[in-house]
Amino acid sequence: MGQTWQPVSSGIGFSVKMLGVTVEGSFRGLAANLKFNPETPTAGSLSATVDAATVDTDNALRNRHLREKEDFFEAANYPKISLKSTKIEKAANGYIGHFDLTIKSITKSVKVPFTFSQTDNKATFTGTFMINRRDWALGGNTFGMSNEVTIRLTVNAILK
């Protein structure tokens, strides 16, 4: 039997190396539809969006670049970044979600190892995965920018 979880807080972070220095950033505006039961993970369905315009790296000029430039998120044209599960399976240390990640109308499959910890009617979903920014046409030929981007997700939820 599926369980429906209502997000109450979230942390969506990313990091990428720029000229050898790690740049950290985050997104806000999570909206999610979380149907998940640890007893029957394959019957689960996880989907979420964040607002591309909320990208924050603690640098106003860089944030504006990331939001507006053609080589980056173009938030006015592509306001949402979305993640939607296609399959969820049990793994040795938690679960593996197979997701379609859509950024700027480009959709690619990603694998997201995640954990699910539940206490009574509260739960936390936590996952970390890497993408190649070029798969989503992000960053163009930005000098010194690594292709690998690490994404960290934490969603605290309550049972509906």
Q: Please give the alpha-carbon distance between the first and last residues.
A: 14 Å
Number of strands: 9
Q: What count of helical segments does DSSP give?
A: 1
Cα shape: elongated
For the largest sheet, list the strands in their spatial order: 1-3-4-5-6-7-8-9
Coarse structural class: mainly beta
Helix content class: under 10%
Computed over alpha carbons, the radius of gyration is 16 Å
Q: Note the beta-strand portion.
A: over 45%
Element string (H = helix, E = strand): EEEEHEEEEE
Largest sheet: 8 strands, antiparallel, barrel
Question: Which blocks of ≥5 consecutive residues have pLDDT under 50?
Answer: none
On the 0 to 100 scale, the average pLDDT is: 96
